[in-house]
Write a structure and sequence with these properties.
single chain, nine-stranded mixed β-sheet
Length: about 325
């Protein structure tokens, strides 16, 4: 089992209805790694500045995450500032300081090249393809993106999409990329952009997530019902980490990914995202246990399973 993830490791300064946090640890690859590591071996590639705390790097190592590809550059770590209002599905960006991330040139350590699975977190699509060129023969490639790349590097993004197996986007991004407002039409339009059989996962925050596979029924996974949400930052990356970790595990055990594995991946991603939003940054993930993950998965299954069909007449 092995996943290489390439993306950002960052500081977040944010405000939500639950409070504020300055310089919280964040970043797409950071969230993905911590989550996916529950299910498989993870190798991280990102860049941080000389202000990045050694204690967090040590924690990643303690979790068993390979940080050989975590590059250290002179300068400050990527810093995002944002605010969530009553609609926790959308963040308002107040500031983005790329800092050392502006010159990020991902170079994978030699032993990363043998990875079975690759996840391209939200970075420039040109860099995403550069990462893929450094991996020998991955069996599964997933990616995420954002509005910025859809708007300013659409052709490059579509080229990268044509090289992956599964694409994660939120509702807004899927509509922007496809030009379709209806989510089902949007997913089909995105699939048509690739010559490969592309699986599309559309994340809908508190309204769950949808899985679209060519020629197969749509799978819907509702969000776990929570009494309170402190910080939605990283929920999408955590969701992807749970999904991809589960799929990589299935590949290792069986050599293939079945329909049941895809459904299990959606369940797992949803459960993991439900934990990370319960506190700021990685506060909840630091104490999360495997037993808690299993227990919540059973709760979510109980919420969604209906015995028998509709009785008419």
């Amino acid at each position: 089992m092995s996943i290489v993830v390439v993306g950002s490791v960052a500081f977040d300064s944010l405000e939500t209805p639950a409070g504020k946090r300055e310089q919280a640890l964040g970043g797409s690859a950071n969230y993905f790694s911590i989550c996916s590591n529950f299910f498989t071996d993870v190798s991280l590639c990102a860049v941080v500045g000389d202000d990045f705390p050694a204690a967090h790097t040590a924690w990643l190592k303690e979790k068993g995450i390979d940080v050989s590809g975590l590059m250290h550059a002179t300068g400050k770590t990527f810093h995002w500032k944002g605010r969530y209002g009553s609609d926790l599905n959308e963040a308002q960006t107040l500031g983005t300081d790329l800092n050392v991330f502006a010159d990020f040139d991902p170079k994978l350590p030699a032993h990363y090249a043998d990875a079975q699975t690759v996840f391209l977190a939200n970075i420039d699509p040109d860099l995403q393809r550069k990462v893929l060129s450094q991996v020998k023969a991955p069996k599964l490639v997933g990616m995420d993106s954002m509005n910025l790349w859809i708007n300013i590097k659409r052709d490059s993004l579509i080229e990268t999409i044509g090289m992956v197996d599964v694409l994660f986007l939120n509702e807004t991004e899927s509509r922007l990329l496809s030009g379709e407002h209806n989510i089902v039409k949007a997913a089909k339009g995105i699939q048509a952009l690739s010559k490969k059989a592309l699986t599309v996962v559309i994340k809908r925050g508190e309204y769950g997530a949808l899985l679209f596979q060519p020629g197969k029924p749509v799978v819907f996974m509702p969000a776990f019902a929570l009494e309170s949400v402190f910080d939605p930052t990283g929920a999408g990356d955590t969701f992807a980490g749970g999904c991809m970790g589960t799929l990589d595990r299935a590949l290792t055990k069986n050599g293939v990914i079945t329909d049941a594995d895809w459904r299990r991946a959606m369940l797992t991603g949803t459960v993991m995202a439900s934990f990370v939003v319960e506190a700021f940054s990685f506060d909840r993930m630091q104490s999360l246990t495997a037993a808690e993950v299993v227990a919540r998965a059973k709760e979510l299954q109980a919420m969604t399973i209906v015995d028998g069909g509709v009785d008419i007449g």
